[in-house]
Specification:
Helix content is 51%, strand content 17%. α9 links the parallel β5 and β6. α1 runs antiparallel to α2 and α2 packs antiparallel against α3.
């Protein structure tokens, strides 16, 4: 089943004739049934129906385009199959996880621990302290992977200028999550330069920065975020989330 819905979405998006549309839908309905998904096949088949006006090819084409739009919306907004999530939904989920990461941390090791938990959990959770981006990565990665099973930890990539280290990569969504943690030797300008350099060198469609500013080097988080948030750099979409430890 892996990839079939994205494959269907991509193919249907490109179709521009009545015959191609009918043929592709028929092929995918058969494929879905073969993969043990008759209910989805039936839904796809139903949504793909359109009125054929024997007296007007133009009217038939317009009806087909309306059907095509409805079908694409269905796949995009309502279908989750294993590792497959429509990319526009995927980036929204990632941003939601990251925006609320501080709540996860607070619940995990700051809030009171249930009295019936094992001694190992009670003794060790209270000792957790985030000191660098690797600590952030270790805590965030399981959250991301629970939703996106193909998520993986950093890889090294030769950009042609220097080696770029990616922190959490979700290949199916074309997302890179870059984790940063401020240091005593860092100031806001150097942090900004790191972010700008990463934007240039990463080739993912979505670049999401999570900045754990434990040293409070960012004087105005709102303005810092606004500098990059939602900006398009070529075909790259940039997002930034900043957490300063006072929130925990």
């Amino acid at each position: 089943m892996e990839g079939i819905m994205k494959e269907l979405y991509d193919e249907i998006s490109e179709l521009n004739t009545v015959k191609e549309y009918k043929d592709r839908i028929s092929q995918y309905v058969t494929k879905l049934k073969q993969q043990g998904l008759p209910d989805i096949a039936s839904e796809i088949n139903s949504l793909s129906e359109f009125y054929v006006n024997k007296l007007s090819k133009e009217s038939t084409f317009d009806s087909m385009k309306q059907s095509q739009t409805s079908l694409l919306n269905y796949i995009e907004n309502h279908i989750y199959f294993g590792e497959e999530v429509a990319t526009n939904i995927g980036i929204s989920i990632v941003r939601k996880i990251i925006a609320n990461f501080h709540l996860f941390c607070k619940s995990l090791y700051k809030d009171s621990i249930h009295g019936k938990c094992s001694a190992e959990i009670k003794d060790n959770l209270s000792k957790i302290e985030i000191k660098n981006e690797y600590d952030v990565q270790q805590l965030m990665y399981p959250l991301i992977r629970a939703v996106f099973p193909d998520a993986r930890l950093e890889k090294n990539e030769d950009s042609g200028h220097h080696t770029v280290r990616e922190d959490i990569v979700i290949d199916s969504q074309n997302i890179i999550i870059e984790l940063k943690c401020s240091r005593k030797t860092m100031n806001e300008r150097s942090l900004s330069e790191e972010v700008a350099a990463d934007i240039v060198h990463y080739n993912n469609k979505y670049i999401v920065f999570y900045i754990y500013d434990k040293e409070n080097v960012i004087k105005n988080p709102h303005n810092f975020k606004k500098t990059y948030e939602g900006k398009m750099v070529g075909d790259k979409q940039i997002y930034v989330e900043i957490l300063q430890p006072t929130l925990l």
